[in-house]
Structure formats: C-alpha cells, structure tokens
Amino acid sequence: MEERIDIRTAVRDRYGAIAEGKGCGCGTSGSGAGATCCAGELGYSEAETASIPEGANLGLGCGAPVALAAPKRGETVLDLGSGAGVDVFLAAREVGPEGRVIGVDMTPAMIDRARAHAAKKSFANVEFRLGEIEHLPLPDASVDVIVSNCVVNLSPEKAQVFREAFRVLKPGGRMLLSDLVLERPLPAETRDSIEAYVGCIGGASLRGEYLELIRGAGFLGVEVVREGRYGAEPVTSVQVRATKP
C-alpha cells in the first residue's frame, strides 16, 4: 500500500471529484437520480428523503445511522465525514431549532456543497467544518451523539478516529456508525490497491478488529445492531452502536 499521505490525498481527490459531479465512490455508481433510488436500500424512508435538500444525498453511504441513533430535541450531533450533508440535515430535523448538528469533512468541495445546501434551505441549526476525523475541530465533551456513514473505513488511522470520537462525546454520549467490515482478509492485490481503498473496500477492517478498536478507545456496550451484505464477499455493511461511560 502506498504511503499514508498518498492514501489521504487519493481519498480527498476522489471525493472532491464526486462533490463536483465528476465521479462516484462508496455505495453508488453515480449521483443525482441514481443516488435517490438507492436511498431506500440504505434505510432512508421516503419522508426522510423528501425532507433533505436536493443534491445532499450523493448515495455514498452504507446505512442510515441517524434513524438508529435517534437524536433527541435539543441535542448536539456530530457527523464524521459528512460529505454533502445528507445525515446532517436528517439529524437537524430531529434535534429541532434548539439543537445543533455539526458536520466535519476533509474535502473542501464537499464542505462547499453542504454549506450551499444549508443556505438554500435556511437550515439555521447546522454547521459544516473543514477538518479531519482523526483530528476533530471540536472541544472535549461537546457533543451528545456521533454518527458516521461509510467513512471510518477510509481512514488509515482508525484507532485515532475512535479516540477523537471518545474525546468529543459527553459522558453518557452515544455513537452509531454505519460502515463496512470484512469477514475475512482481502486478497493482497485488493488490499494493496488505491482504487479499492477509495472505493471503501481496501481500507476496511476485519469485523472483530474494528469492534476492538472501538472498545480500545474506551467505549462500552459496543454492538452490531444491524448488518447486511455489501456487494461481493467478504464485505459486510454493519451498524455499530457504542456509548461513552
């Protein structure tokens, strides 16, 4: 596998192109109508799909973490790798005007796109910050809920992602991740492919290792609450819940 900086640059370049309508990534072979069509497969209801700004759903996820996280009115929610903002806008509806939702993404074009959606639809309770999920631009113990949708697998430093998530969560806060994991190791040619990495396959962890990384960051109650096949074996889409004590 190429060096860490090459992985991060490749991911940023790929998702920057997707934000500009020039490519595709995890969960989709395109954007626009195709992304809308796959929303139901990911777990979004018709009402949820209708409530978000047009173009916010690029079909890049592998689940519907907001529904499972069940944000409450007045809570602060953080979306790791928020992309064009689909899960941020869904969470904003749940937390209400007294709540707040923050999206963090390392791709400038995605942040620009999400901010434009928020401004167009006058979402007053959302904010999008440019930053890496391994180094979150938030203070300690500042959010109630963390969600993420098919993003952690793209990080070359997953343990650091989970340590940061633990840091910014308030005591008693909860995390719900939709992500891809492996049931067995990948062939070397897939594991060492940058194309497979930016496609959310090459960087995926073995299921047991993924859950242990979350526990190692300090989380309790780590459990897979939903799962399903994702393309060809050995990849599985999982929804993982965990709590900060």
Task: Describe the fold and architecture.
Helices cover 36% and strands 24% of the residues. It is an alpha/beta fold and 245 residues long. The relative contact order is 0.14. It has one domain (4-243): Vaccinia Virus protein VP39 (Rossmann fold, 3-Layer(aba) Sandwich). The chain has helices at residues 4-19, 33-37, 39-42, 46-51, 65-69, 86-95, 108-120, 158-168, 188-191, 194-198, 207-216, and strands at residues 76-80, 100-105, 126-130, 143-149, 169-182, 205-206, 220-229, 235-243. Strands 1, 2, 3, 4, 5, 6, 7 and 8 form an eight-stranded mixed sheet that branches. It is globular, with a radius of gyration of 16 Å. Helix 1 (4-19) runs parallel beside helix 7 (108-120) and helix 8 (158-168) crosses helix 11 (207-216).
User: What fraction, in percent, of the residue positions are helical?
Assistant: 25-40%
Number of helices: 11
How many individual domains? 1
Q: Low-confidence runs (pLDDT<50, min 5 residues)?
A: 1-5, 28-40
Identify the CATH homologous superfamily.
Vaccinia Virus protein VP39
Please provide the ordered H/E string of secondary-structure elements: HHHHHEHEHEEHEHHEHEE
Which CATH class is shown?
Answer: Alpha Beta
Give the termini distance in whole angstroms: 36 Å
SS class: alpha/beta
- Which fold name is given in CATH as the topology? Rossmann fold
What features would you highlight for this structure?
245 residues, alpha/beta, Rossmann fold, 8-stranded mixed β-sheet, 8 strands, globular, disordered N terminus
